[in-house]
Amino acid sequence: MTMNMNMLLYLAAATLALVGLIVALAALRAVRGLRVRCLGAEAALAGVRRELELMTTLSAKTGRRVRRIEEECSGVAERVDQVEQRGAPQSFAGAIAAARRGADAGGLSQQFGISRGEADLVARLHGRKRA
After folding, report:
1. Is the whole-model pTM more than 0.70?
2. Is there a domain that residue 5 lies in?
């Protein structure tokens, strides 16, 4: 009976050792899987960092372009205010009538307060045709 008891203890110890070995192998496999996932996450993070740096660069360039455009167009609001203040429809109506009577672009510009480009356009579109 002692032999049976010893045999049962050896068998239990061997079973316990085998279960421990299986658990250790499973844990090792899980650690390897986690290591692979971690390496993948690090690679993805490096890609995200590169994209973020690119977006930061593009954002800075876009900001500079917007500021430059704002500077270039800052006079537009003043010009629109001037056009609105001068009563554009009456000015253009008068300029058209004067162009039809033979006024030149310089005279239209001075008389009606329109720009030289506007006066040239009115004179070309509505002025007398020259022989």
Report:
1. no
2. no
